[in-house]
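Fig. S4 source data, part A: sequence.
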Amino acid sequence: MDFVIFVISMGVLIWGADTIIRQSEAIALKFNISEFVIGATLIALGTSLPEMAASVVASIDHKADMAVANIIGSNILNISLVLGAVFMIAKNINPNRNFFLKDSTWAIVPVFVFLLMIIDGVISRFDGVLLLLLMGAYILFLVTDDSSSIELEDEVDMQHFSWFKTIILLMVGLVLVVVGANFTVESASNIARSFGVSEWIIGIVMISFGTSLPELVVSISAALKNKVDMAIGNIIGSNMANTTIVLGTSALANPLGIDSKAYMFDLATLLFVTLLLVFMTANKLYNKSAGISLFIILALFLNHTISSI
């Protein structure tokens, strides 16, 4: 039965993601806002809702390992799987935005802050507040920095633009994404538990994969429509939201204890893929070779995780 639920929820997820892409483009066209900012804010926050739901619930249930593992795994998958898929699928990758100059700091700083916070073995409520403030600073930066708006392909008829219709469809899309992801996570977790794996493994592989599905589907949909700025913006914004809002909210619900020494490989992988993202943006390595490299890292990460079961 869990396998049937998994397949159905995936379909709901894909349908919701396509709705989000179309309505987000309509909003971007209406205000002449760049695809990147739409991807890094509206879409990123929407697709991070499953991570927040899963981690906050886990935190309330005193399952800190599952809550933190979900965030770490989601960020690793967003870069290795989602960004790798974007590089492999997009036909012409020529971003309008200089990601290294404008966004590399916001990609790496939250990871360093997170690693500093877990040195003492716990992410406290005070740490949670600081993480939320960091996300606020990021949103402020995006709003004040987006001076170079771009023209989008007019796939949306702006003469018939309706705020009511757009908002309703956007909300429906977000609900479908969240509901689809949640059922995907629940069914996948039930399947994993039947094999007797640990909470950390469930969190870092099964749940993080399930909660990363919105980013994956949305980014692939954007890449197929050659909206690379929106796809990359979604990935950077989602990782920022995961490390700040999701982690911060989870810490506010309950302080999160974590044994950093026990999960050194996963933490090192998180740091490595983030640094690799910065390196790729610095050298503008937006190609299939970069995608293959990211998939290799994903394979190594999954192999280590599975072998530790």
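Fig. S4 source data, part B ends here. The domain at 2-143+159-307 is CATH 1.20.1420.30 (A middle domain of Talin 1).
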